[in-house]
Write a structure and sequence with these properties.
- This protein has helices at about 35-40, 55-65, 80-85, 90-105, 125-135, 155-165, 200-205, 220-225, 225-235, 250-260, 270-275, and strands at about 5-10, 45, 75-80, 110-115, 145, 165-170, 190-195, 240-245.
- It is α/β, with parallel strands linked by helices and about 300 residues long.
- It has an eight-stranded parallel sheet with strand order 1-8-7-6-5-4-3-2, covered by helices on one side.
- Strand 5 (about 145), helix 6 and strand 6 form a beta-alpha-beta unit.
- The radius of gyration is 19 Å and the shape is globular.
- The protein starts with 6 loop residues before the first strand and ends in a 24-residue tail after the last helix.
Amino acid sequence: MANLHHLSIGPSGWHRADWVSTVYPKPATRGWHPLDTLARYVDVAEIGQTFAGPLRQEIAKLYAKKVERNLDFLFTALLERRFTYDRDLNEGAVEAWKTGMFPLLKARRLGAVVMQFPWAFRFTEENKQFLIQLRRTFHEFPLAAEFRHESWLRDEAVTTLVNYRVGFVNIDQPQYFRAMPPTAMLTSGVAVVRLHGRRSPEGFREFDQPVDQSYLYDLDELLEWQPRIERLAANAARVLVVTANAEGGRSMVNALQLREIFGDRALRAPAPLIGEYPAELAAFRAQRPVQAVLLPARAA
């Protein structure tokens, strides 16, 4: 970034099948990997599959190798839901999850491990103690907690995060009863922002409802986050901004727009993505000719 060198912006969802022909070229060249493309345009990517289970070590090593030309590239990863949603800290499961992530940690490519909690996880003494237990269990990793219930904004809750060096994930989500509002909270050296979209509140409020990832932020909505991110960047050692509205490459579009807002002068984007989102990426250029999409598949 031209303005904030310690600000990293990038998408989640980069392993999705619907990114082929939308973000990535088709057919791809032999030996190609999604990170070959991603690392040319952004400098952070979220590993979402770790929410379901551990990575294999060889996969984590491959990820680190694929981004080695981008010296600033970092990953965030979602902690497995078995630990956060189900509260099952089985020793073998914990060890397997850690083992899978150690290659990225040792390569200094792991910016944050996000502990995502459901809305039902409110600030209580019991939940506070469980959070502390998670911090101790995964003490090797840079942890950040994503809460969806506003009770975690209480002074005691924030103090707990500071005392145990747990980052606070500032989120953009649909608004509903006692939902976590947009914030610019910093409780550790690493600030994390995750933009989920503003549709389907039931996906965030109900325990096991799917989240709609098809929301596309407009420029004004992204600009709402500029002062918050600047406030975090003024005080944090590193700011990681992840766009989580992954369907159809939307998280990549919004990540690139945010990079433009914060002074990225390269303004490069994958050719298929410019063809799919010509209005949103009007200022961007590609390294090969852009083919316009006459009948976009995306919803209006």
